[in-house]
Design goal:
Oligomer: single chain
Radius of gyration: 22 Å
Structural class: mainly alpha
Shape: elongated
Number of strands: 0
Strand content: under 5%
Low-confidence stretches: none
Length: 115
């Protein structure tokens, strides 16, 4: 009928919505499919839920952003404009939670602390 409208919208919009990657749907920068592939190839468990790689990619993205923010603050405090490995190391070791989490991690190109 001329006065009635179709419901549901166009099929093109529906297809575009369905064709989005899991990374785009989760609005993440880190690739969910890459994390999923690494989890499957690592044989960490027999079964893997569909939300596990999304959650892990979100955690990795958050930790990366936090460390870069702290390293940027360290660089700015020292009057530098670039983040170097030394600033990353200082950012991790000056934060109590990150220092505990990365206690056994060695950041390359940084001299070990003098004891």
């Amino acid at each position: 009928m001329p006065g009635q409208r179709r419901q549901g919208g166009s099929s093109r919009r529906r297809r575009q919505r369905l064709n989005r990657s899991s990374t785009a749907r989760a609005e993440l920068s880190f690739s969910v499919s890459h994390v999923e592939r690494l989890l499957r190839e690592g044989h960490y468990s027999q079964r893997l839920s569909s939300s596990a790689p999304v959650f892990l990619a979100a955690i990795i993205q958050y930790l990366t952003a936090k460390i870069l923010e702290l390293a940027g603050n360290e660089a700015q405090n020292r009057g530098q404009r670039r983040i170097t490995p030394e600033f990353l190391d200082m950012a991790v070791h000056n934060n109590a939670l990150l220092s505990e989490f990365f206690w056994s991690t060695t950041i390359s190109q940084v001299a070990p602390p003098q004891e």
